[in-house]
Design a protein that fits this description.
Length: 249
């Protein structure tokens, strides 16, 4: 790269940061989450594939939800054209951030979150005529319906945001999902952002991995993630973790 030349990104999002024109409230959720405060203050420049990991309550789902909504997607899942909504429980983060888009970047995207998939399937089935999709998602198993949806919707350049998509998926199905997301991320006009507990998804080649916690968020190396280390120790000696269960009998 020539010295002094600004790198041009054609992906949907170049930068996410707090909007300086917005006056934030004094405290209150989600400003009690360190990772949210850090995102607003320091910003994030997602690459082709960004993976966010952390314990329950660390803020990863709140962050990906805010990004998806700021891009124009429903908090309960669907594309940038969807109007799916059942009960509003989302935070105000989406209205506090400013998204800088890539040059000529796609404005289309799709959001999948495990906890609202049932409602999304119902919405899609009830609006088949608008979407040209006759798939009866409720007739499939959970894993089959997830992969069917991804096969039909994750097929063009755009922003793909996923919140714990591995929930309920078999090992082989999670691998298939990882391969599809890796393939999407290699498209210079696409972008994938995932919140996950899966060491498989966190291991996708080329991923920018961020760990969120009481410190906020920080870049992480896959091998050093507590998520990976815990699974390694458990699989090597499950009895060390399960002995307390035996003692309670």
């Amino acid at each position: 790269m020539v010295a002094g030349r600004v790198r041009v990104s054609h992906r949907p999002i170049r930068r996410i940061v707090g909007d300086p024109a917005v006056a934030l409230p004094e405290g209150g959720w989600p400003l009690t989450i360190p990772a949210v405060v850090q995102l607003l203050n320091q910003g994030l420049e997602p690459g082709g594939l960004t993976v966010i990991v952390g314990d329950n309550g660390s803020g990863k789902s709140t962050i990906v939800e805010g990004i998806a909504m700021a891009f124009g997607m429903s908090p309960e899942g669907g594309s940038t054209l969807a109007a799916h909504s059942t009960r509003g429980t989302e935070s105000s983060l989406h209205s506090w951030v400013r998204i800088t888009r890539g040059v000529g970047g796609s404005r289309w995207g799709y959001f999948i979150r495990a906890e609202t998939m049932h409602g999304l399937y119902t919405y899609l089935e009830e609006n088949r005529s608008l979407r040209g999709d006759n798939t009866e998602y409720h007739r499939f198993s959970h894993g089959e319906s997830v992969m069917s949806l991804i096969g039909s919707r994750f097929s063009t350049s755009g922003l793909y945001v996923l919140d714990e998509p591995e929930a309920g998926l078999a090992f082989e199905t999670t691998l298939a999902l990882a391969l599809r997301l890796w393939d999407l991320a290699r498209d210079v006009r696409s972008q994938v952002i995932i919140a996950t507990h899966s060491p498989i998804l966190a291991a996708i080649p080329g991923a920018q991995v961020y760990e969120v916690g009481p410190w906020g968020w920080r870049p992480a190396v896959w091998e050093e993630l507590p998520l990976v280390q815990h699974w390694r120790r458990f699989l090597s000696r499950p009895e060390a973790y399960l002995d307390p269960l035996d003692a309670s009998d």
